[in-house]
Amino acid sequence: xxxxxxxxxxxxxxxxxxxxxxxxxxxxxxxxxxxxxxxxxxxxxxxxxxxxxxxxxxxxxxxxxxxxxxxxxxxxxxxxxxxxxxxxxxxxxxxxxxxxxxxxxxxxxxxxxxxxxxxxxxxxxxxxxxxxxxxxxxxxxxxxxxxxxxxxxxxxxxxxxxxxxxxxxxxxxxxxxxxxxxx
Length: 183
Fold this sequence. Notes:
By secondary structure, the chain is of the alpha+beta class. The protein has one domain: Jann2411-like fold (Orthogonal Bundle), CATH 1.10.3300.10. The protein has helices spanning 3-12, 27-36, 48-70, 76-82, 109-127, 159-176; strands at 15-16, 21-22, 87-95, 98-105, 133-135, 144-146. A two-stranded antiparallel ribbon has the order 1-2. The chain has a two-stranded antiparallel ribbon with strand order 3-4.
């Protein structure tokens, strides 16, 4: 799994729908999150607008990852937020092949650090990991994960989510057939 895919999964999972927790509820938490991942170079306060922008990006990313899972790509929300996170082609990125141009945030500080998440989306598309970053099919989970299966057919983030879904389906079939449901 690429570091870009890891960053996108980490960002999408900064909200836990199952547990009802969110790592990004304040500007301080956003700054701490960005610093911990090397996206922000020095501690600086995130404004309410910065936080709102990051949350819009996370929601748009989540929507795009659902499209990856369903194989119905929809970048509409991501494109909408991208207009608020301008990027430019410039600078140089050292690579194994030498020095190459790369996307860079136009803005500095927290907005620039949030823009780096959008750069990671582009890099994940370029390195081929993007279609493998998905959202769990379990309605009560919605966790982002990396599908490492050969045919990209994994449906759940972990075995437990798949087991719960299969058990619910089994019990529903048994009820519909008039059979008893084991406890």
